[in-house]
Write a structure and sequence with these properties.
3-stranded parallel sheet, mainly alpha, 169 residues, 3 strands
C-alpha cells in the first residue's frame, strides 16, 4: 500500500487515517500489509508510469521493478505468505491508485488484485491506450472514489470502466 503515513495513524496522515490495522483485526483471514512511505519530492516521479508534459514524472517502472524484484521476493522468503498473484494486492489512492492500476497491467503474474482509490488517470492518456492494448485483463480491480470528486475524475473512471468491460476474459 502506498503513502504509508495514511495507513495506520491519523496523526501522521495527510487526509485521514485509512484504519488498516483496525480492518485487519476485523478480518477472519490474516494477511501482511506492507506500507511504503512516499518519496516526498520524488512521489510524482515514482508513482507515474508515463510523463506529463506539465508535471514531468514517468519513472514508475523503476519503482515497480524494485517492488517486484526486490521487496516482494524478500517478503515471500522471510514471511509466511501465499506468493501467487491471486493472493497479492497492490493498493493506493490518487497517484498511488494510478500506479496500482498500472501494476496489474504490467505485472499480471505478480499482482492479481488492485485497490484503485481516486486514481489520477488524468495524468496521462497513455494509461487508456495501455488498457486498450493489453491482453485480456484478469485482475480484480476495486475502484473507489468519494462524493466530492471532480467531474473530470468521474468521467475518467467511467472511461476506464468502459475500456475494462471491453477487455475482460
Amino acid at each position: 500500500m502506498y503513502d504509508a503515513q495514511n495507513l495506520f495513524d491519523a496523526k501522521t496522515s495527510f487526509a485521514g487515517e485509512w484504519n488498516i490495522d483496525e480492518t485487519l483485526d476485523s478480518l477472519k483471514t490474516k494477511g501482511i500489509v506492507i506500507g511504503i512511505e512516499h518519496g516526498k519530492e520524488k512521489r510524482l516521479e515514482e508513482l507515474t508510469p508515463f510523463p506529463n508534459e506539465k508535471y514531468g514524472g514517468g519513472k514508475a517502472d523503476a519503482y515497480l521493478e524494485f517492488i517486484v524484484k526486490t521487496l516482494k521476493p524478500y517478503v515471500d522468503k522471510n514471511y509466511r505468505t501465499k506468493p501467487s498473484a491471486n493472493n497479492t494486492v497492490i493498493f493506493g489512492s490518487s497517484l498511488g491508485g494510478l500506479v496500482s492500476y498500472y501494476a496489474v497491467l504490467k505485472y499480471p503474474e505478480v499482482f492479481g488484485k488492485a485497490g484503485v482509490f481516486s486514481p489520477s488517470f488524468w495524468f496521462s492518456d497513455e494509461i487508456y491506450t495501455m488498457t486498450e492494448n493489453s491482453d485480456k485483463i484478469k485482475a480484480k480491480i476495486y475502484f473507489l472514489y468519494g462524493d466530492s470528486e471532480s467531474d473530470a475524475m468521474m468521467k475518467d473512471i467511467r472511461k476506464m470502466k468502459h475500456l475494462l468491460d471491453d477487455n475482460r476474459c
